[in-house]
Amino acid sequence: xxxxxxxxxSTPPPPRxxxxxxxxxxxxxxxxxxxxxxxxxxxxxxxxxxxxVIGAALLPLLDVGAIYRTLFGRGLLLLGFALTAxxxxxxxxxxxVVLQLGLMVWVAAWLSSDNARLCVRDLLxxxxxxxxxxxxxxxxxxxxxxxxxxxxxxxxxxxxxVSYFSNIAMSAMLSLAVTMVLTRxxxxxRAHSLVLGLALYFLVFSFVRTALIALxxxxxxxxxxxxxxxxxxxxxxxxxxxxxxxxxxxxxxTNVVLEHLQEFPVISRLFLRGExxxxxxxxxxxxxRPWLWMQHLILFETSPFLMGLGVFEFSEVQPEALLVxxxxxxxxxxxxxxxxxxxxxxxxxxxxxxSRLRESARQCDLWACACFPPIILxxxxxxxxxxxxxxxxxxxxxxxxxxxKAFADDASALPASEGPVTDLDEAAAxxxxxxxxVDGAAQAKESEAGAQARTLAPGRNAAIHPVxxxx
Length: 471
Hints:
61% helix, single chain, disordered N terminus, mainly alpha, 471 residues
C-alpha cells in the first residue's frame, strides 16, 4: 500500500496539449478566405458560408467547460452584453440579430478562456502553409490578381504592391499578426528571423495603409515602453488607452491635415495611395472611415431607446451618400457598427476590451500594452476582420484578452487539456513529503478513507461539468 501511495503522489501532471479545436478554426477560416477573390465574400447560405458558421459554432463545444467559467468570471461583461442586447431584440422579434450576437459572444468567450492559447510554431506552420498554397494558387489559377514580386502587379491595382492572398488586406493583416507575435521577445525574433523577414516583406509591400500605420504604432510603443525603467501599471494602461483613442481621433481629422501634407511622398504613399493635389472632399472620400463612424453614430442616436436597429442593410439606412456615389458595406468599423446594431449594451463589449488592457497593465505585460492601440486601430478601420468566423481577427483578439500568455514558443508551455481533475492530478499538482516517520499501513488506510469520502461527496468539478464528457 505504501508503494501505491508513493506512486500516486509522484505521478507527473497531465500532459499539456495543443488546442486542436482552435487550430482547426484558424485553418478552416484561412482556407475559405484563400478560396475567394478580392471582390468576393462567401454569400449567406452558400456552402462556404455554412462551413465558417458551423465551424465557429461547434468547435468551441470542445472547450465548453472553460467557456462557462469565462462567462461567469473575467467575461462577465460579455455575458451582460449578450443578455441585455439579446433580450431587447428578442422582444422586438429580430431573431436574426440575436443569433448573430450569440455567435459573437460564444466565440469571444471561447477565445477568452484559459484553454485558448496557440503554440508559436503551430502559428508559423499555418502561416508558411498559407504562403505555399497562395503561391500555388497564383501559379495555377486566376484567383489572385496581385503579384508576388514588386513590379508584377497590374498597374490599376498598384504595380509595386504584392500579396499571396487573393485579398491583399488579408495578406497584410495576417503578416502583421505574425510580425507582432514573433517580436514578443528578442529571442523569438532571432529564432524565427526568416519567417519574420517573409512576414515583413508581404506586410510592407502590400502598401495597405492601416496595416503599415499599425506596424509603426506598434514599433513606437514597443520602443517607448522598453526604454522606461520599470513602468507602472497605471502608466502602461493610460498610455495604451489614450494612444488607442488618439490615433483614431487623428484619423477623424485627416482631411484637414492631409490637405497641407499630401505633397510629401511618404505621406502621399502611406495615406493617399500615392496621389497628390486632392481637394478636402476627395481626401474625405479616400479616408471613408470617419464618414462611416459618423453614419453609425447617427443611426445609434436615432434608434428606438438607443438600443440599436438590429439587422439592417447599411446602404438602405445610411443618412447620407458618399460623394462618389458608391455603395459601402458599412461593416468596416466594428465598435460603431455594434452601437448602431445593439445600442447601449454594446458599450459592455468596449468595457470588456478595456478591462483586458487593465489586466495586461497590472501584470506589466509591455508587449500586450503595445499591441492594444494598433489592434484598436484595426478594429475601427478593418472591423470586418473581427467577425466571429475570421481567424485573423481571432489572433488579434487573443493578443488583447490574454497578452503574452496567448502564445507559447513551445507546446509544453500551453495550458493542460480540458477535463475533470482526478485524485492523481490533484496529488501531482500538490505533492506532499511522505516522511520516514509515517507508518505505511496507516497512510494507505487514510488515503483509502479519503478516496471514499471524495466518492460520496460531489467534487468541485461537479458544478462545472454536470454532464460527463461535456467539455
